[in-house]
Amino acid sequence: MLIEIITNIGMTMVAFLRGMPNEERTNRNIEMLKSTEWFRSIYQTNDKFLNKDEDIRHIIGWANVEKTLKSEKRMNRLRKKIEDALQDK
Question: Is residue 8 part of a domain?
Answer without folding.
Answer: no
